[in-house]
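Dear V.,

Thank you for sending over the compound details. I've combined the ligand you provided, orotidine-5'-monophosphate, with the protein sequence from our construct and run the structure prediction for the complex. I'm sharing the raw inputs here so there's no ambiguity about protonation or stereochemistry in the SMILES, which I know was a concern on your side last time.
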Amino acid sequence: MTQPFGARLHDAMRSHGPLCAGIDPHRGLVESWGLTYDVRGLERFALTCVEAFAGRVAAVKPQSAFFEVFGSRGVAVLERVLTELREAGTLTILDAKRGDIGSTMTAYAEAYLGEGAVAPPDALTVSPYLGYESLRPAIDLADRTGRGLFVLALTSNPEGASVQHATRDGEVVAASIVRGAAGDNAAAHGRGELGSVGLVIGATVGTAVQDLGLDLVGAATPVLAPGFGAQGGTVASLGSTFGAARGQVLAASSREILAAGPEPRRLVAQTTRVAESLRA
Ligand SMILES: O=C(O)c1cc(=O)[nH]c(=O)n1[C@@H]1O[C@H](COP(=O)(O)O)[C@@H](O)[C@H]1O
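Below is the predicted structure of the protein with orotidine-5'-monophosphate bound, written out as structure tokens.
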């Protein structure tokens, strides 16, 4: 791999605008496309998305759960999605929110980020709520293979604050996650580049970034901001939520784009419209 993930994401955001299109084939959406909710419907849905998104957005984020529902055949569809997007030159972020202890985290890291991974994404979402350092095997392996991570910091669901806004030893939990990512991105920051350890901060968190004093610019973290579109995040709210760090933010949207299917032409038009709104 030629460049680290942070640099590749920076280039993709500059070329296509800061949009990450989600592939979330849940039952309601699949059926609204006139497809049956089975592996064949899943495959048709997911490959239509690949066709519409490849080459048009900075990154694509398939949500693993919606493929896992169908067992090994669903996972095979997910692997095909990741492989086809890689071949098309579009970055992938697998949303699997993995997080575990020691040897188990090492196995998750090898499964998704290792040299021998079957269909590796360019980056993986991970949960630091077993402790930021529990992610060390994934952080180190991603660094060696040029891949990236997005670590949950402030999630878009209302329940998240009960853990993420809590304070321990005088430090807010989310701030400790930002501090961890800043340490791992320090070398990239020194070169004036984005690091490869990103954060997930919902587009819907309002003033929490400022209220909790999170220094995202200093941490040189790419920020994945789900909740753009269907959950209420807007171009204006991205500006007020992220302030000086707005240029690091990759807005993620699933339902708002996917609702335009199944007609490929309409899906492409909606993808382009949302990407343009963010680029502007
Ligand atoms: O990690 C994520 O992507 C994520 C984190 C978060 O805080 N909130 C959140 O909604 N997500 C994911 O982002 C997607 C949101 O989809 P829409 O609300 O349809 O745009 C889903 O796949 C969620 O699992």
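A first observation: The mean pLDDT is 97.

Warm regards,
I. M.
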